[in-house]
Amino acid sequence: MRPIPNHARVVIIGGGICGASTAYHLAGLGITDVVVLEKAQLTSGSTWHAAGLVGQLRSSANITQLLKYSVELYDKLEAETGQATGWKMCGGLRLAGTEQRMIELRRAATTARSFGLQMELLSPKEAFDLWPLMEIDDLVGAAFLPTDGSASPSDTTMALVKGARSHGVRFIENCQVKGIHVQAGRVSAVDTVQGRIGCEVVVNCAGQWAREIGALAGVSVPVCSMEHQYMISEPIDGVHRDLPTLRDPDKLVYFKEEVGGLCMGGYEPDPIPWAVGGLPEDFAFQLLAENYDHFMGLVELALQRVPVLGEVGVRKLINGPEAFTPDGNFILGEAPEVENFYVGAGFNAYGIAAGGGAGRALAEWIEAGVPPMDLWPVDIRRFHKHHADAQWVRARTTEIYAKHYTMSWPMEEHESARPRRTSPLYDRLKAQRAVFGEKMGWERPNWFAKEAEPSVDQYSFGRPNWFEAVGREHRNTRDHVSLFDQTSFAKFMVTGPDAEAALSWICANDISKPPGTLIYTQLLNERGGIECDLTVARLDEGRFYIVTGTAFATHDFHWIRSNLPEGGDVQLTDVTEDFTVLSLMGPRAREVLQPLCAEDISNEAFGFGSTQTLTVSGIEVQALRVTYVGELGWELHVAQEQALALYDLLMTQGAAHGIANAGYRAIETLRLEKGYRVWPGEVGPDHTPLEAGLGWAAKLKTSIPFLGREALELQRTQGLKKRIACFTIDDPDTVLWGRETILRDGKEVGWLSSAGFGHTVGKFIGYGYVRRRSGVDRAFLESGTYELDVATRRVPAQLHFGALFDPRGLKIRC
Ligand SMILES: Cc1cc2nc3c(=O)[nH]c(=O)nc-3n(C[C@H](O)[C@H](O)[C@H](O)COP(=O)(O)OP(=O)(O)OC[C@H]3O[C@@H](n4cnc5c(N)ncnc54)[C@H](O)[C@@H]3O)c2cc1C
Predict the structure, then answer these.
(1) Ligand 1 mean position to 206 CA, how many Å?
(2) Beta carbon of 271 within 6 Å of any ligand 1 atom
(3) pTM (2 decimals)?
(4) What is the rounded distance in angstroms from the CA atom of residue 576 to the CA atom of residue 324?
(5) 350 Cβ below 6 A of ligand 1
(6) What pLDDT score was predicted for residue 2?
(7) Backbone angles phi, psi at 351, to 5 degrees
(8) Which residue, 38, 222, 388, 423, is the most exposed by fewest CB within 10 angstroms?
(9) Is 38 in the pocket of ligand 1 (CB under 6 A)?
(10) Where would I find the H helices in 153-279?
(11) Ligand 1: does its nearest atom lie under 6 Å from the Cβ of 161?
């Protein structure tokens, strides 16, 4: 046996499709000093027993692009490597058995169109013509993606292996990784049963074992193994090789052709986690015991659709375990805990579909040290500490698995494993009929129900049950004053003698302002893309307080830490859980707050964009005069133990001024009217401040260097290829949720990144980028006539420049 190398630039752990694809793409980038270590044999994990359906459409444009790339790759891989892949572009059908499901399909068709993916809507009869074995009496319609297909998972993986090998990548089987060495925060070596390999980069593609592999390096990888079953029938007359794949979400099942018969699998409403007590290390090329009892529910549903399945025998029932995640998206990228430790795992039973694109993205990420594009839905930095809790992960993952084929509603919240993180006001707000949502584990009031209203979300593609309540909170904020519990904001302290210099480098805006100043800024990558969008409060010379979005706690902390210039005397600390944030917002905010505090908070004494320490009836509060709703107001940051007392004081004092609780869904409708951007919708790594209309917040007029400056300057001279734009529609019955296609003079030019109803302007509002290869300027924007494609229906839309509400910002500066 050839000895293992002493050193490799990149060590990939796991010889499934993800490890093979990452190796293949690294080799393609010229990184060939790569070894792939497999504890058993290549493909012996989940890959060998996958059914092999390859679908492409996801709710994010970039993740759809990854899956589209998988298809392009599989289409040419056999010719390139000489290794058969079993790939066939047979198309994919998706059925709608209810009107609601049909709306979901129409919206999906619009999303597909936005993302450049072909998807046709079909009548039941047209679907039948493509798939004559099915019953269609109950069908409302269907959708067909002609470029979807299926592949042989093992063969495709072996083709990737062959391609990588031809460039010099080494695959070593029977080589279990037992330990990972980390020195000064970076990986340095792996220990295997065959010895140690020094390395610069480790890539954890260990499938269901990714959690355990992560733990060897102190990295949390929230995957959970779940049982997943499908059956293969005896051959059936009429089932041919090119039969499209078929997904019937109302019946929870999928089908594909398999050697003249049908492969049928699905997602049970009561999924079964596997190996709760710990994964067996020696599990390879194995299946779990067939569980007919559990599968029978799916069989009954499948027979309703394809009765002929009941007339043939079952050749096999496959029960294979697979790594699922608590949000249904896979996990990619450099771990925030350890430098040069990358993860590609947790594929939620679509790892064959994702494998090609995920491997490419991971390889490019490794090469550049940053993601090649905005990959936020799959970015490992979307997780937080509670995701290290296996029990929490299992509970949430079980819910997500069970919901795989259920309706995917706009603004849907999950129910399991809650509450996890709560603000001190949680019980108080709950008692006042708060309807909570959850983000990063935090319970956050979304809206407040009146006595007569059910205090629960009732989802709809139209106007949902919270529509009126949110309108109430919205108007109260515009007309009187509202109190928002925004405790979940991520908050960091940056301190030290070199704090200003360090922040000056990573912030696009000028932070060299006097203590007491608030600075809204973006943090850019080298491409000028917006990695973070946050507020910096300068508390004193060497102390800066950073406030950013709840979901970005890990991401933004990691970005800041990784980009602080080396050698400086700067400390970065996460203080999120130290402070509660009460946001007092509305024209009467000052009337509520002033009588409670000794300090003068007049506009002259406490202007917009500044911060002061106030004493509110004896409670010390860091008050930030800032707003995300477009009104006079303060964010009051207060020690957790004082939060309830402050809340009671404000509510009592505010009673005479019409104060009321308000939630996150009102924040969303209020900010849309003001045109405030949200990360990662209107702002994100793929968008620069110039494209996002935030050029004013970059210190380009100064000569101060900052990360991303060169890219912005270049873009300024070259012109923009896309620009953010605001649209409204007049039709009150058309509801915008986001991802609707933007048409300019009848041609697709982009899609809405976010949308909602503006209760003051009385219209649905959407924001999205208008794109054109040859450039987009104001004249181009102004000269077009716009429509939005909403669930495949075209609706006239008006383009706007500037905020729809209080465009001159007078209300926030008074
Ligand atoms: C029943 C079933 C049906 C499926 N159907 C489909 C489908 O139709 N379409 C689709 O796209 N996807 C499908 N999937 C999902 C697909 O199989 C997986 O998402 C994919 O194979 C995951 O690939 P991977 O490389 O991440 O993991 P794996 O294939 O599991 O590879 C991980 C490898 O890491 C190795 N390893 C673990 N620990 C160590 C260690 N310490 N040292 C060295 N090596 C180690 C393992 O031995 C394993 O080979 C299905 C899955 C199941 C279970």
Answers:
(1) 8
(2) no
(3) 0.97
(4) 29
(5) yes
(6) 87
(7) -70, -25
(8) 388
(9) yes
(10) 153-165, 210-216
(11) no
Give the atom of ligand 1 at the shortest distance from the alpha carbon of 37. Answer: 43
Q: pLDDT by residue (tens digit) across 338-355?
A: 999 999 999 999 999 999
The residue count of the chain comes to: 814
Nearest-angstrom CA–CA distance, 382 and 363: 20
Residue 405 DSSP SS3: coil
Ligand 1 centroid to Cα of residue 49, in Å, is 8
Q: How far is the CA of 350 from the centre of ligand 1 (A)?
A: 10
Ligand 1 centroid to Cα of residue 568, in Å, is: 43
- Region for 116 from its dihedrals, namely left if φ exceeds 0, alpha if ψ lies in -120 to 50, beta otherwise: left
Strand partners, 758: 763
Question: Can you say whether the dihedral through the CA atoms of 547, 611, 569, 525 is positive or negative?
Answer: positive
Asked if the bond preceding 410 is cis, omega within 30° of 0, the reply is no
For ligand 1, atom 2, the nearest C-alpha belongs to 50
Å from CA of 46 to ligand 1 middle: 3
Structure tokens at 532: 């973070």
Task: Convert the pLDDT of each residue in 768-793 to its tens digit.
Answer: 999 999 999 999 999 999 999 999 99
**243 C-beta closer than 6 A to ligand 1:** no
CA–CA dist 726, 732 (Å, integer): 17
Q: What is the 3-state secondary structure (H, E, C) of 91-115?
A: CEEEEECCHHHHHHHHHHHHHHHHC
Tell me the C-alpha distance between 804 and 543, whole Å.
Answer: 36
User: Six-digit token pair at 427?
Assistant: 């019980």
> What pLDDT digit, counting tens, does each position of 134-189 carry?
999 999 999 999 999 999 999 999 999 999 999 999 999 999 999 999 999 999 99
CA separation for the pair 430, 372 (Å, rounded): 42
The CA 346 to ligand 1 mean position distance, Å, reads 9
Residue with tokens 């009732």: 458
What is the distance between the terminal CA atoms of the chain, rounded to a whole angstrom?
Answer: 78
Among the atoms of ligand 1, which is closest to the Cα of residue 207?
A: 27
| DSSP count for the chain of H helices, then E strands | 18, 37
Q: What is the pLDDT of residue 519?
A: 98
Q: What is d(CA 778, CA 352) in angstroms, rounded to the nearest whole number? A: 43
Provide CB contacts within 8 A for 734, sequence distance 6+.
764, 790, 793, 795
Q: Which amino acid is at 353?
A: A
CA pair distance 111, 680, nearest whole angstrom: 17
> Taking the CA atoms of the chain, what radius of gyration do you get in angstroms?
27
Percentage, residues of the chain above pLDDT 90? 99
User: Atom 12 of ligand 1 has which residue's CA nearest to it?
Assistant: 350
For residue 336, the tally of other CB atoms under 10 A from its CB is 21
CB atoms within 10 A of CB 633: 31
Give the residue ranges of DSSP H helices in 436-583.
Answer: 467-479, 499-506, 553-563
What's the helix, strand, coil split of the chain in %, to 5?
Answer: 30, 30, 40
46 lines ligand 1 (CB under 6 A): yes
Work out the widest C-alpha separation in the chain, in whole angstroms.
85
Between the CA of 349 and the centroid of ligand 1 the distance, in Å, is 9
Question: Is the Cβ atom of 346 under 6 angstroms away from ligand 1?
Answer: no
Q: What token pair was written down for 256?
A: 């594909």
- Give the pLDDT mean for 649-656: 98
Question: Which residue has the least CA distance to atom 4 on ligand 1?
Answer: 50
pLDDT of 732 > 90? The answer is no
Per-residue pLDDT, averaged over 231-239, amounts to 97
Q: Decide whether any atom of ligand 1 lies within 6 Å of the 205 Cβ.
A: yes
